[in-house]
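Kindly review both lines to help learners:
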Amino acid sequence: MLNQYYTVKGYGEHEIIIEKSRFICFIDRAETEEAAQAFIQSIKKKHHNANHNCSAYLIGEYDEIQKANDDGEPNGTAGVPMLEVLKKKKLKNTVVVVTRYFGGIKLGAGGLIRAYGKSVSEGVAHTGMVERRLMRHMRTSVEYTLLGKVENELRSSAFLLQEIEYLDQVTFHTYVAEEETAAFEEWMVELTNGRCEIVSAESLYIEIDVN
């Protein structure tokens, strides 16, 4: 599993007009090629009367699956520039379809490349991106006399304090980057003079908005 990667927030769509042609960008996450193809087919079915439904997707931790389809546009003028935008933005597990309703004015090869690239670029910006970070759930239990000290230190640290549980002891639920778990444990032991119990729980992805 990757320690971190970028993807889109979720489903989104965005329309632009270029020389009277409508370019509608549809974008979503896709963890598998089957999911990407299903998304593409759903858009094609919905916009079956469009002139073109061009598509591209990147799947896998290391972009093992990359596909681009011009859907009738001149070779290399639609799908590939769409795919290049996804790569440039370092997006993973992302599928995009750009539906074109022809407005009567031909754009030429260069114009098409710019139009499809712009459609995806604006579509991503409109939908939004997230950074998915692989974090370890750490449960740190201390006596109530240490509550204030530990809470203040955690809130001013780079670690993500998710929840505080008040039972026989106080338990801090914190998300820590995989590579920082050892440093976190050492810091917490030092902070409490060894008066803490630390349990390393499951790893999961935490999503952080990308501006």
